[in-house]
Amino acid sequence: MGLAKNWLLLSLLLVIWMPLGRGKVYPRDIYRRTPKFRRAWMGVESNTGPNFGGWLLRILNSDGNFACGGAYYAPLLVITSANCIYPYRNSLEGATVEGTAFSKCDDENVAEIDTIQFPERFIYRKLYMDVAVVRLKEPIKGRLTEFIRLCTVKVQPRMRMVVFGWGYDSLEVQKPSSDPRNSSVSVISLKECRKSFGKSLRLSSTSVCVRQPKNPRQCLYDGGGPMIYKRELCGVVSIGSQCQNTSYPGMFTNIKRVARFIRETEEGIKAGYIFRAPKVRQKTPAKVIRSPATSEINTTELKYEAKTTTIDPLEAMVCN
Ligand SMILES: *[C@@H]1O[C@H](CO)[C@@H](O)[C@H](O)[C@H]1NC(C)=O
Ligand SMILES: *[C@@H]1O[C@H](CO)[C@@H](O)[C@H](O)[C@H]1NC(C)=O
Ligand SMILES: *[C@@H]1O[C@H](CO)[C@@H](O)[C@H](O)[C@H]1NC(C)=O
């Protein structure tokens, strides 16, 4: 009971002290019922440290290698491209999703994958409805981990979007980086897009084409990699293009056009009619257990620390 009281005090203190800094750290990890709005990403400038936001994720296959980019949407849900994740669908044992924003208070930012939901009308290697919802066994921990909102704007030609990736899909151009990179692209009309592909590609009503940067080194096209407009997820990398020749447009799935599938999947999971993967005998992963901090929090000390901290909330955050 004393612990609960202290928690409340701590949370209160943190809330009061947060606006002082330029960034945001959360007093605790995400749990299964964390409401999405509580952890909504508020833009690059709102987050702390050298990261693009705690919503940007890497999906790793069972060997621990990069599979796809992903965007954190809800405690147990990650959005990616169906074409990218489809080949892994039958070997999910040990496949994980990893956060890209870490703080000194985090021991782990990795969650195991439970199942993957594909739209009924998605066909492998086709553009239509190229989106998948990855369901996690547990939320991804981390004090910087956040959710991204789905697109609310109509994506139109000439809009400038920001894409994120590691460069795994452009090995010919340069080596992938361990940290994600960002780049800017502009949306082009379907008409213009069709012209550059000729008859070699059938566009879909759920696709968005973008003009890639002239410099192939700035081209980011990892499958499932997110494309954002302001603070919203408006696209994920689909198939059909390559960074080798950036005169070809990049193809993304238009998140606004597939939002219904995402929301229905979310509802179905909440209502319990989309099932979890059947239980297999669990290999308990060797978890790092933090030495439990003293449960009695010295509030005098805490107040003192809060008052003197005005510069970097990431440095000053209190781990407990
Ligand atoms: C990439 O991220 C950096 C750091 O957050 C930012 O300054 C830059 O403007 C971003 N570039 C684009 C194209 O968004
Ligand atoms: C890229 O593709 C365009 C269109 O097919 C072609 O004209 C151009 O020569 C290609 N560039 C390179 C570097 O391959
Ligand atoms: C709490 O910390 C302050 C400052 O370090 C110290 O003076 C005080 O004795 C501590 N109180 C307890 C109950 O440990």
TrEMBL record:
<keyword id="KW-1015">Disulfide bond</keyword>
<dbReference type="Pfam" id="PF00089">
    <property type="entry name" value="Trypsin"/>
</dbReference>
<keyword id="KW-0732">Signal</keyword>
<keyword id="KW-0720">Serine protease</keyword>
<keyword id="KW-0645">Protease</keyword>
<keyword id="KW-0865">Zymogen</keyword>
<keyword id="KW-0378">Hydrolase</keyword>
<dbReference type="InterPro" id="IPR001314">
    <property type="entry name" value="Peptidase_S1A"/>
</dbReference>
<comment type="similarity">
    <text>Belongs to the peptidase S1 family.</text>
</comment>
<dbReference type="InterPro" id="IPR001254">
    <property type="entry name" value="Trypsin_dom"/>
</dbReference>
<dbReference type="InterPro" id="IPR009003">
    <property type="entry name" value="Peptidase_S1_PA"/>
</dbReference>
<protein>
    <recommendedName>
        <fullName>trypsin</fullName>
        <ecNumber>3.4.21.4</ecNumber>
    </recommendedName>
</protein>
<dbReference type="InterPro" id="IPR050430">
    <property type="entry name" value="Peptidase_S1"/>
</dbReference>
<feature type="domain" description="Peptidase S1">
    <location>
        <begin position="41"/>
        <end position="267"/>
    </location>
</feature>
<feature type="signal peptide">
    <location>
        <begin position="1"/>
        <end position="23"/>
    </location>
</feature>
<dbReference type="InterPro" id="IPR043504">
    <property type="entry name" value="Peptidase_S1_PA_chymotrypsin"/>
</dbReference>
